[in-house]
Amino acid sequence: MQNTLSTHEDDTHTTTFEPRGPLSSALLRLLQDAPPETGSDADDALRAFVAEADTVAAASDDLLRDEDVQLTLFVLYGIHYGDVVERDDEWEWNPALVAARLAIEKHFEATLRAVVPVPEHAALEPRAQAVADLLFQLTGEEGGPSLSRYIASKATRDQLTELIVQRSIYTLKEADPHSWGIPRLSGRPKAALVEIQADEYGGGRPERVHASIFAATMRALGLDDTYGRYVDNVPAITLASLNQMSMFGLNRRLRGAVVGHLAAFEMTSSIPNGLYARGFRRNGFGDDVTDYFDEHVEADAVHEQIAGRDLAGALAEDHPELLPDILFGAASCLAVDGWAAEHLYQSWTAGRSSLRTPLPDAG
Question: For the chain, which domains are there?
Answer without folding.
Answer: 5-115 (no CATH), 128-349 (1.20.910.10)
